Amino acid sequence: MKKTILFLFVISIVSCQNKLQVDAIVMNAKVYSVNSNFEEAEAFAIKNGKFVEVGTSNDIQKKYTSEEIIDAKGQTIVPGFIDAHCHFFGMGLAEQEVKLEGTTSYNEVITRIIDFQNRKKVSFIVGRGWDQNDWETKEFPTKEKLDSVFPDIPVVLTRVDGHAMLVNQAALNLTALNAESHIDGGEIILENGKLTGVILDAAMSEIRKVIPSISKEKSTMALKDAERICLNLGLTTVDEAGLDKSVIDLIDSLQQAGELNIRVYAMARSDDRNLDYYLNKGIVKTNKLNVRSFKFVADGALGSRGATLRAPYSDRADHYGTLSNSFERLQSVAKRISNSKFQMNSHAIGDSANHIVLNTYKTVLKNKKDRRWRVEHAQILSEEDFELFDDIIPSIQPTHATSDMYWAADRIGNERIKNGYAFKKLLNKYGKIALGTDFPVEHVSPFLTFYAAVSRQDLDQYPEDGFQIENALTREETLKGMTIWAAYSNFEEEEKGSIEAGKLADFIILDKDIMETPLNHIPTIKVIKTFIDGKAVYNQ
Fold first, then answer.
1. For a tag on the chain, would you pick the N or C end, based on fewer CB atoms within 10 A?
2. Residue 431: DSSP 8-state
3. How many structural domains comprise the chain?
């Protein structure tokens, strides 16, 4: 009997010695790997920040040993979410400004500003998030109330989509803008020949010039605030849609110092300074940062009637919207980028803007393979232009559809809206689709993205059958769009986006099964833990 026990003890020791030492083992989970066969697994091993092997709990435990064993107890694990289009830095800055999202009237906007000023006592008030389409009176506000309450303190309030501002006279007095001002690519709204305080698109640059510069300390705080929000929601990579070199450099320095964990796919703004610098320097790639794309803005937003249409707006017969950059500028920038290894990602909302962007892409990319240029938003399209997405990636935001559905048909009519927010149709043309939120234009939550893509409904489950439900995505398509397809759109599908051996160990543990829970439960899903490089960066 003693010999038998000794033999078994020796066998046990030898068995342990033969096991491979890893940094962590996750077991007893329901793992959606999002690999090429969309296979499920139970466990995986992690070493040096990467997945070593994925399989059953029994197999992983037989082959590997670790001081850190995570028993998931049957909970769902998916790859870390990637937001393919957002304004990460902008959301962080918004945490330090007046928050106007969800206001139901102009009076509520004024109340929030007063409350903010009573707390902060600043000399220049900045806010963001108002949307007149959410108010009973859906016309643009005017500056009279702001002038009355804040006659001496400049106030600049950016609309939720970032394509319009409401400013008071004190802010206007710091600029040269007047009723006769004309700025290409922008508009200054007048009423009875006088400034209303509403400034659109390119004209906003004159206002931005007078906003106090942001200190390095404030920028750092903004980035850390944004990271905290994102990690809590399971985002491990964000595609930042339009940054200056100075902010990109700050992100890099914080990541290198271990002060910022989230991965950033940074689209540099396509002004001449950024173009000259990055086209000369080449792609910048670290473990956490990837700079290999430029963000170009073709037009404005539909909500502010800045999106450029091929026929007039249905609710403003004399208006076609505005190109934010000239056609000549689009061609020049596209040509420069096409002669490099960089990607071009163009904001295009209206059918006219999409038409000229797509055709420009086709011209400059002729005979150039696998460039993965993207159209950001691709909201309203002409029927014939869908065919042009055969080698152009649609990068879309599902919650735009469920936010805009209440008023979009009024803007463009019942016929044009049929080719609006056509996610499934776009997916069928390219075969992949990159999903994001455009936060802080929309809420940052990837679970709202998932819900909107699959249900095409708001949180009250309206409309009952879904908004143009034929363009809904399946759950599998949606999860791919938030992980592996988003990684593909960043040229990163070999390193992230799925739970597979050799890839970065970015994953999240959820409190509900996102692939099986009832649709109306999806928005309430919570992240229990978020991991980057196999290390927990958020714990519930």
1. N
2. S
3. 1
Q: What is the CATH number of the domain that holds 95?
A: 3.10.310.70
Q: What length does the chain have?
A: 540
**Assigned domain for 225 exists:** no
Tell me if 162 is assigned to some domain: yes
Task: Classify residue 475: in a domain, yes or no.
Answer: no
| DSSP code string of 72-125 | -TT-EEEEPEEEEEE-HHHHHHHTTSEE-TT--SHHHHHHHHHHHHHHH--SSE
Q: Note the pLDDT tens digit of each residue in 508-517.
A: 999 999 999 9
Q: Please, what's the b/e burial string for 477-486 (b: 16 or more CB within 10 A of its CB; e: otherwise)?
A: bbbbbbbbbb
* pLDDT tens-place string over residues 156-166: 999 988 889 99
Domain limits for position 181: 91-208
DSSP characters over 50-71? EEEEEE-HHHHHHHEE-S-EEE
Answer yes or no: is 129 within a domain. yes
- 299 strand-pairing partners: 323
Give the rounded percent of residues in the chain with a pLDDT score beyond 90. Answer: 92
Q: What is the 3-state secondary structure (H, E, C) of 257-294?
A: CCCCCCEEEEEEECCHHHHHHHHHHCCEECCCEEEEEE
Q: Mean pLDDT across the stretch 373-380? A: 98
Query: Collapsing DSSP states into helix, strand and coil, what is residue 163?
Result: coil
Cα–Cα distance for residue pair 196/143, rounded to 1 Å: 6
